[in-house]
Amino acid sequence: MKIIEIIGARPQFIKAAVVSKQLRKDEKIKDIILHTGQHYDENMSKVFFDELQIPKPDYNLNVGSGNHGKQTALMLEGIEKILIDEKPDWVLVYGDTNSTIAGSLAASKLHIKIAHVEAGLRSFNRLMPEEINRITTDHISDILFAPTQNAMNLLAKEGLKERSYFSGDVMFDSVLFYKNLAEEKFSLNQITNLEEFYLTTIHRQENTDDINNLQNIFTAFSNLDFPVLIPLHPRTQKYLAQINFSENVKIIEPVSYLEMLILLKNCKKVLTDSGGLQKEAFFLQKQCITLRNETEWIETLENNWNFIVGTDIQKIINSVKSIPTSKQKNYFGDGNAGEIIAAYLKNYK
Ligand code: UD1
Questions:
Q1: What's the pLDDT score for residue 171?
Q2: Which of 76, 177, 300, 326 is the most exposed place for a label (fewest CB within 10 A)?
Q3: For residue 62, how far is the Cα from the chain centroid?
Q4: Secondary structure (3-state) at 7
Q5: What is this structure's pTM?
Q6: From residue 87, how far is each of 4, 30, 32, 61, 75 by CA, in Å?
Q7: What is the pLDDT of residue 349?
Q8: Residue with CA at minimum distance from ligand 1 atom 17
Q9: Longest dimension (CA), the chain
Q10: Does residue 55 line the site of ligand 1, with CB under 6 A?
């Protein structure tokens, strides 16, 4: 059986690390990795492959950045050629980026079966490019691997129950697998000299491209009671000169996955607009404050483990003062989502 995994952006490298490890345990599966090149900076791409020991991509389209239409079109053209050549049995896509929609669209037109990992997530905000990518991908895929029961329910509501399968969350597998390795390889003081800090990331288009939103976020950060550490995404970096913030905000270069796990483990709380980091905070039992107006990961909201505050300065400052009201429940599977996905594909008739 031949499988092509299509990846391109940072969180997809982490997810593919989990699944490809399981696929490659079976000699009968030929697992091919196609990197679209959506993320290309050393610290946005190569470091993840090296650190997580992801096999070198068999193909790299090097599409780079661009408007949604151009970026997706270049991917579509490049992926189609490779799929025609390789004739895989399955195309595996992850999450909700432009690489996901390009991969699934190219495969569907060639009648190649598509498996979507992290299916059934919805923010119900159609202004987000990711929402369009994930809805479309779910509806043209043949198997939908859902990370939570809530995702299963949302898929059923959209008439996709027959194609849905609960796998658990591959990012939960990943945190369980890599957290010890992270501690073996890195200590906190190699990454930052801060001992007490809030960990934050900002990269969503709705926050970066609206300068008022970005200013509000940084004004709140400037007024928090502990320093705010930001490994800064290059998208956000471009807008920094246009906003004001105090010395309480400590900016560093993007960090690797293992470094991020160390920061997560040692921070006081997490403030983010990332979907992945909301969950990683949850897995490592850190409270999260989400700088968006909605979340796909509604399970994390229970008992105040996560707060939705948008970009309201006062809400951000106040939410940091709250604490979770009770222990967490497990919504994300048993840490064996990668195995479940590999076994399902292997036995698919
Ligand atoms: C993409 C995904 C988002 C995901 C995120 C993970 C889409 C629509 N969005 O957002 O869902 O959460 O990846 O990080 O696919 N840039 C660089 N170097 C890089 C990559 C990007 O400088 O290696 C800069 C460029 O200025 C680029 C901008 O970041 O224009 C945005 O990159 P892009 O790939 O369009 O989207 P992300 O914001 O990374």
A1: 98
A2: 326
A3: 20
A4: strand
A5: 0.96
A6: 9, 12, 11, 18, 17
A7: 80
A8: 234
A9: 59
A10: no
Q: Is 11 in the pocket of ligand 1 (CB under 6 A)?
A: yes
DSSP at 153: H
> What is the block-wise mean pLDDT of the chain (349 residues), using blocks of 10 residues?
98 97 96 98 96 96 98 98 98 98 98 98 96 98 98 98 98 97 97 98 95 98 98 95 97 97 98 97 97 97 96 97 91 98 94
Active site residue 111: no
Q: What is the DSSP letter of 82?
A: H
Q: How many helices (H) and strands (E) does the chain have?
A: 15, 13
Give distance in angstroms: CA of 238 to centre of ligand 1: 12
H/E element holding 33?
strand 30-35
The owner of tokens 């959209």 is 158
**Cα three-residue angle 338-339-340, rounded to 5 degrees:** 90
Residue 41 near ligand 1, beta carbon < 6 Å: yes
- Return the half-sphere exposure (C-beta side, CA atoms, 13 A cut-off) of residue 48: 26
Contacts of 193 (CB under 8 A, 6+ apart): none
72 pocket-lining for ligand 1 (C-beta < 6 Å): no
